[in-house]
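stage 2 :: seqdesign
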């Protein structure tokens, strides 16, 4: 199992900046017990948005995903994922972590004849144009993923790509599309029904940022040969572990409570995610979305205006030791830093002892594996010396089983801290305003009034001024 090492948030190590963990765990034990019990009791209630807790047990979906991957095996050179936010970040983070680094640059043999994988999660015209120049769309399987079926970014990409595919392939273009969307509603579902695309379902009551273990994540991962059975095994074991209502035995509850108390009692509301592995770089992106969209809320469940704001920050070890650590050691003491440390990397790389009579001889003859973990440990201790709370999540290895544990643990931790804050962690009302404004600016029917008002606002402010 993955492990959580949180001693460096305790007052034994960082003095009054830290928590009295034993008494905090004791004090909150009944509350945590109540939260975990409630989450598990509520999970099957429609509208509770807790169906992500059941994704480890969805054998049928896993079977259909594997069946589809087997069916298209060998037919495509590329998989192109169209999606944004929760519809892209999970699969992107897991494929980046689990595939061999530089996967798309490897030749076919080294990829075991599996396709390259690309994610388009933005609407940058230069990026999209460049990608279309590289990809042979005839040999590309497009997985368009949107729960709502109407997200402007995803659907505009799809419209561009579908048009080009149809030009190249005629009616056969359909064979190159797989859509993942709601089972009944939304424009993409309607299109898929009309045009006959292969589809997968985003289950009810699973929000985007909690959807990585549904078809949203499993389809692209299976298409590039990632072992989704091992992913499911990892979720299940972590789910069982996290069913334990005793805070002393539940790492998601422990980490949720630590972050909650650090925010409420110590004013440390920034959460830095810093894995020490380049393969885990996008895990931080996924975590940032999970934490930010779930916990940044204007109102609590009782309608009080609270502007809740624990704020996530992404970092990468060892790279960001040369960018952010100065601030974390000596700047404002308002953060909890989480390291993800990998015990055993796939490769062991020796540093040759070639500069024996220089100041570099301490490196020669050691492994670079030892260096990266020494830097992780050294940074944790240095932060503790500066009285900065830090936590280390230990991964025995980077593989499907342990990463699934990590992701599921972070999801559960987010759900639990949401309850501690007494907020709804599963909605995102704050993204609607700009969405509606965009519809108005793009001339969507029904938004005319808002468009006039908006143009006035733009012209009175800097944006209009700068554009003029
Ligand atoms: O977590 C979320 O709910 C969001 O980030 C969504 O995933 C994102 O907005 C994309 O939505 P959709 O899948 O409807 O295109």
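stage 2 :: out
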């Amino acid at each position: 199992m993955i492990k959580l090492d949180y001693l460096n948030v305790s007052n034994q190590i960082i003095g009054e900046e830290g928590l009295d963990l034993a008494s905090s765990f004791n004090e909150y034990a009944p509350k945590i017990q109540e939260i975990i019990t409630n989450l598990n009791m509520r999970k099957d209630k429609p509208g509770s948005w807790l169906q992500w807790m059941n994704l480890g047990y969805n054998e049928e979906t896993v079977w259909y995903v594997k069946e589809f991957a087997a069916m298209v095996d060998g037919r495509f050179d590329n998989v192109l994922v169209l999606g944004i936010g929760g519809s892209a970040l999970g699969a992107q983070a897991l494929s980046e972590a689990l595939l061999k680094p530089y996967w798309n640059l490897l030749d076919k043999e080294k990829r075991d004849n599996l396709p390259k994988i690309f994610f388009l999660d933005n609407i940058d015209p230069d990026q999209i144009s460049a990608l279309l120049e590289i990809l042979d769309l005839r040999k590309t399987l497009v997985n368009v993923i949107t729960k709502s079926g109407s997200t402007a970014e995803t659907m505009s990409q799809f419209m561009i790509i579908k048009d080009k595919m149809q030009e190249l392939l005629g009616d056969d273009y359909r064979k190159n599309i797989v859509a993942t969307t709601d089972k009944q509603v939304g424009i993409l579902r309607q299109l898929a029904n009309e045009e006959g695309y292969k589809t997968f379902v985003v289950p009810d009551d699973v929000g985007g940022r909690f959807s990585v273990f549904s078809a949203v994540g499993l389809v692209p991962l299976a298409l590039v040969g990632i072992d989704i059975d091992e992913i499911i095994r990892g979720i299940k074991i972590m789910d069982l572990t996290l069913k334990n209502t005793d805070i002393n035995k539940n790492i998601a509850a422990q980490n949720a409570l630590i972050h909650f108390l650090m925010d409420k009692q110590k004013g440390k509301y920034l959460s830095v995610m810093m894995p020490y592995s380049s393969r885990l770089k996008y895990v931080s992106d996924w975590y940032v979305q999970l934490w930010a969209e779930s916990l940044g809320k204007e109102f609590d469940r009782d309608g009080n205006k609270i502007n809740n704001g624990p704020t996530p920050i992404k970092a990468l070890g060892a790279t960001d030791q040369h960018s952010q650590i100065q601030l974390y050691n000596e700047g404002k003491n308002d953060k909890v830093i989480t390291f993800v440390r990998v015990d055993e990397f796939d490769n062991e790389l020796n540093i040759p002892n070639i500069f024996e009579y220089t100041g570099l001889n301490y490196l020669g003859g050691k492994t670079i594996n030892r260096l990266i973990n020494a830097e992780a440990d050294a940074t944790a201790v240095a932060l503790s010396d500066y009285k900065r709370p830090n936590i280390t999540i230990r991964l025995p290895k980077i593989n499907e089983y342990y990463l699934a544990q990590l992701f599921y643990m972070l999801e559960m931790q987010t759900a639990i801290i949401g309850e501690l804050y007494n907020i709804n962690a599963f909605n995102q009302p704050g993204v609607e305003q700009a969405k509606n404004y965009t519809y108005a600016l793009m001339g969507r029917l029904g938004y005319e009034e808002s468009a006039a008002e908006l143009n006035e606002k733009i012209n009175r402010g800097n944006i209009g001024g700068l554009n003029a």
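stage 3 :: structure notes
- Residues 464-468 have pLDDT under 50 and may be disordered.
- The chain has 17 helices and ten strands.
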